[in-house]
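Incident log, structure service

09:12 report received: a user says their structure output differs between two submissions of the same chain.
09:20 pulled the input from the user's history:
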Amino acid sequence: MIAALAHGPSRLGNYAPGADCHSTLACLRALGVSITEDGTTVTVMGRGLSRLGPPAGPLDAGNSGTTMRLLAGVLAAHPFVTTMIGDESLSRRPMRRVIEPLGLMGCRIDSTDGRPPLTIHGTTLQAITYRSVTPSAQVKSAVLFAGLQTPGTTTVIEPARTRDHTEHAFTAFGGSVRVEDGGRRVSIDGPQPLVGQQLTVPGDFSSAAFWMVAAAARPGSRVEIEDVGLNPSRTALIDVLRRFGAHVTVEPTEGAAGEPRGTITVEGDRIGRIDITPAEVPGLIDELPAIAALAGHGAEVSVRGAAELRVKETDRIAALVAGLRALGISADERPDGFVAGEAGRSTVGAGPADARGDHRCAMAFAIAALAGQSPSQILGADAVVISYPGFFDTLGRLVA
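09:34 re-ran on a clean worker, output below:
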């Protein structure tokens, strides 16, 4: 999205082949952006700030909440009306969290009771200072995208630090972002011209998390993950697994665009207990399904303060608990989390565990099922195509 708003071409290497990323490319193409793909390299011909074109029809974000929320911020500053739609899952997800701040900036967004489809009436915006009630990197990024194209200073203040890839990316493309108060206050001056870049995307930590957990769950196992992103706002799982009893080593290599990267090695040693507190949740929100998989391997997992999981691709709390139970693992819901597993007891059965169309649930159930003495069945496992199409191929190689 930033490349589309920059001047000139950008060449992005190691671009993920998942369905969510393809949804983003399709939306940008519909807005008049020329994009070519060569394997995992994508070249984007930037059009400049507020110079995207009106689409011929609705933009389909598929299953991607990131696409819809961030692109809403981009389109809010464009002088035309755009409708954004999504699949059945995305159509249930809450969008008031972006509708509100963009509305304060002057953009009217019509919705169905705060849910997609969204009809965005783009206009000339005004800069604001916005205090977010719920920490959300997606909301923060949407407002920053709008602020990038708006005269004055736009500021987002959050109750907790959230992931900061957007801030780093703006800087990498020649922009300027001010980050204060430990990352909880972010400001951008607009309008700022950006320049196309040649960049390589580091491996996705949230995808790597499933291999890290798999190794940590099985004493004697070892996995080495190369060229994975080590952004500090993403890597809280490393300390969680060390707390759990795993040996985790990190070897940083040279980063780019403000995104450190390197090699992570995880060795399983002993099985412990995992307690995730509310203060830890913002830094672990995408890794919590992977952590839940430890319950299948004789660990007790307790998560609190994660009500945000209920408004992901599915109600992840309900889906995780139901799927773990289907695999024979004790699990109970909390309003804002769950408790699963029994210390020292692994009772994984055959299932079937229903992923309910959620890619992270499908991967979590697969990692939990590694503890089974016989094959386990996962329904809807093809959902992994959303973020990690090669997941089961890689799993097969690791357990061969």
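09:41 both user submissions now match this output. Likely a transient worker issue. Closing.
09:42 reviewer note: The radius of gyration is 21 Å. The domain at 205-399 is CATH 3.65.10.10 (UDP-n-acetylglucosamine1-carboxyvinyl-transferase; Chain).
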